[in-house]
Amino acid sequence: MEREETPSLHGRRRLIETVLGGGLLASIASFLYPVMRYLIPPRVVDLGGDQVVAGKVGDLKPNGAKIFRFGTRPALLVMTAEGEYRALSAVCTHLGCTVQYRGDLHEIWCACHNGFYDLNGRNVSGPPPRPLEVYQVNVRGEEIFVSRKRES
Amino acid sequence: MDTWHSRAGRWILALALGAGFCALPAGAQQNSCLDCHGSLDPPLQVTAEQYARDIHAQKGLNCASCHGGDPTKADMDAMSKKAGFRGKPDRKQIPEFCGKCHSDAAFLRQYNPSLRTDQLAQYKTSVHGQRLAHGDSKVAVCIDCHGVHGIRPASDTRSPVNPLNVAQTCSHCHSNAEYMKEYKIPTDQFEKYSKSVHHEAMTVRGDLSAPTCTTCHGNHGAAPPGVGSVRNVCATCHVFQSQMFDKSTHKAAFEKAGLPGCVVCHSNHEVKHPTDAMLSTGPQSVCVRCHTPGDRCDQATTTIHAGLTHLQGAIQEADAVLAVAESSGMEVSEARLNQDQARDDLTKARVTIHSFRKELVNQDIQAGLKVTAADLEAGKGALRERDYRRVGLAVSVFFILIVLLGLRAYIRFIEREPNTSEGTS
Amino acid sequence: MGPMARAREWLEERIHWAEIIAPLKKKTVPRHKLSPWYFLGGITLFLFMIQVCTGILLLLYYRPGANEAFESVQYIMTRVQFGWLVRSIHSWSANLMILTAFAHMFSVLFLRAYRKPRELTWVSGMVLLFLALGFGFSGYLLPWNTLAFFATKVGTQITGQVPVVGHAMMVFLRGGEDVTGATLTRFFGFHVAVLPGITVLLIMIHLALVQYFGMSVPPGVEQRWKEHPEEVRGTKFFPNFFLRELMAWYIALGALGALAAIWPWELGTKADPFGSAPAGIRPEWYFMFMFQTLKKIPARLWFMDGEVAGILVFGAAGALWVLLPFFDPVAKGRGRRFVMGAGVFALAYILAMTVYGYVAQ
User: Fold this and answer.
1) Has residue B416 got a pLDDT over 80?
2) N or C: which end of chain B has fewer CB within 10 A?
3) Which chains have at least 3 CB atom pairs separated by less than 8 Å from chain C?
């Protein structure tokens, strides 16, 4: 199979082989690089669409609240005056504004059209036609997990 | 008794009862009023169809309940004075006529316990009622708005007093310049109202809670709200603006000048969607109607206006960048979500204007700007990522091209001489 | 001795390496004007291997289940490093693979490579084509977005129209009467276990058959070469044809990368089973011709319900297609003309109805 090759032909073969080999290696590296990065788990762990870490113990004081992201929509985490955690959807059922917690009234309030909800999400006053969706709160260690209520 | 026990007697009894039973329903249904009046021409015409849809008829009342007479008798005998026939009441008597039942709470409870019974009392306080009492029969009485035969309840969308139709009903008189000539009040209210944002809310968005004539003027007690009470009328819905206005300098100033609050800037019937331009110094400005250009207040207004324009611009800028990122396939849903927060802040700023304090407005504007700045950064970051991807792609494609060229060269090399090449036979 | 030679010797001592690769070294590919069509099968295989690799990578982060599927795909697209690349390549390559599979099938048809003794190769290839469509249909649902949800609803509902067994088939596919999270789980099982298993097996059979019979030569060329044996040309499979194949594969890789980077696959909106179907529901392009046909069929065809008639016609056409090689030798040339005519008609029909389906929207 090996024929006689003149030195110039031999040199050409070596050049082509080098270019080809180099190109193959480089292209394979450019394919493997993203795959390697892909295999490393991202820092923000995916808990699944159902669960989110809403905060840490100590983030909130009694009668305080914060907004956090649940899926693609905002949600409200409230610590009642008695120290209990409540989590609800923060999307007002009237026209979609983001609601807030009123510590002075111990109620949830929508600033857009003066709608009020109690801490169980029930719409008690103003335009909102429906209650807010209530989520489940579990405190595990230092972290506060909020998840959608499981259907039985 | 013996007669009935005989066979013949039993037959007679059966026939009589049968005839009696046949006659009974006919007698109960007989409404000779409709028999004639259904085929007469207006204004005496009352069709069976009107009668059928009338809420009073549906509740078991009939012609005689209001007009008296005897509907079981045929022809003109039905309109017998002996049976209490009252005929058509005079216009001036109509409120009392309807009120005979509708102000009697005990009576009305039988039909609908939740109906109000103060309409007559309210009517007597209204402009219509008072003018009627002074002998003016051109004003509206019950039947002008509710209809007379074929009355539908107000909840029925076909009723002339259903919220969707109220403005139209009022305009029958109030937009008729000829009819209203002697009263010397404007007749363009309906025309103006039709251009308003309240009218749009009801007809376009279907919001039945949007205000119509009766919402601000009252229905039975219809009267224009007084200068001092206009603000209270608006405040029933526009709570925040009213609260802020109350704490502002303008409240006292308007009261002293006898100006009707909200109406001064927003008009009463032609309430248009407010624009930021109302704060500017251009032709749409409302401030310059009272204030001198260049004075302290005017400067504050300019600051506020500039702030609002700035925030709106920032929102649009961030939206534009995010849209570009999205159409390039980048994931920016979180930033998009945050934009809603910025829009909320702009809405809040526009409400805070009614405090007439630029520091307060500025607070809302700054909050909004913080959000848009973050979103703009997110959008730009997405675009940077997109460019990074394209550079990566270019690098990869470059190597691929090298491989392709190398392969081609290699293949050409090993197949170089047609007779001695390795590959072909 | 160089390291390569030493490795060869080590293998030779144990498994007679030279004997194993000898037939491969001898293998030639006929060289004629229509040879480039030979590449299509290899490209389809290459794209399938890409699918397996990207699919396995996606499996590391994807969660099946109505509550989590969409969010996990969103996670892959936004949080996982180069997740957007892996997912977009998987989606683009899926479409490309089906395209090349169809092209491969039509080229085999028109080059008449299905003739005796290669009938079984054709049959196994047709089953592979159906499996590819099954992959496409099951995979489309997995991101659990609105378009996919309703497309699956319509698609499985059409299956339910088949007489006698239709309803049972539909319930089997859907995992119930309606499309729910159960459907998603089931499609996931089909897509990552059942279909790959069957497909790998069939590919091995298909390749073994191709290897056994060698590459078929178009009838015209075959005739010419019989008369002029000196004109017979072939290319050695190793390394010449293989290197060319490698070029084709690299071009495909480049194309996939470009498609994934410039037109990343969209996420859509999460499916809401209680929501109403948005306007413009349509299946993926490879089902469009059937979908458009069923849309345009009149409500009653003769004595049958139009849609049922359409489904039965497609079913019959599919069965006929699998059995095409057996028509070919029939009636001295009439069978052959029938097969060619059917091929032209099918290709034209598919193209026309696909374009029509898109333009009509």
Assistant:
1) no
2) N
3) A, B
